[in-house]
Fold this sequence. Notes:
Blueprint: E1 2-6, E2 9-12, E3 17-24, E4 33-38, E5 45-50, E6 56-58, E7 66-70, E8 78-83, E9 92-98, E10 111-116
Parallel strand pairs: 2-10
Antiparallel strand pairs: 1-3, 3-8, 4-5, 4-9, 5-6, 7-8, 9-10
Amino acid sequence: VRLVESGGGLVQTGESLRLSCTASGFTFKDYAIGWFRQAPGKQRELVARMDSQGYTNYADSVKGRFAISRMRDATKNTVWLQMNSLKPEDTADYYCNGVPSTLTGVWGQGTQVTVSS
Length: 117
């Protein structure tokens, strides 16, 4: 299994970013998937989740601002995280994975998001 995240960067408060994640050896549509983040000195947390039926839920801290989605074409095997109205507290490394992460047993390199005030 290999997970590759991209799309992070440095933005200002209130701006948007769209993160992408592609997987090999793991088919997103068959499982619950999620975006996690880890800020410096903090534990990794799940911020957005989509189950195999397409239902989504979000951490309270990002609800209404973040949206997880995946390609309808299962062969593309890509998941996105649209992040709007970014805040400095959203600064973290972002990762995608199955939920729970033991479904894959691996983590990608993540993509860094920095939101300046």
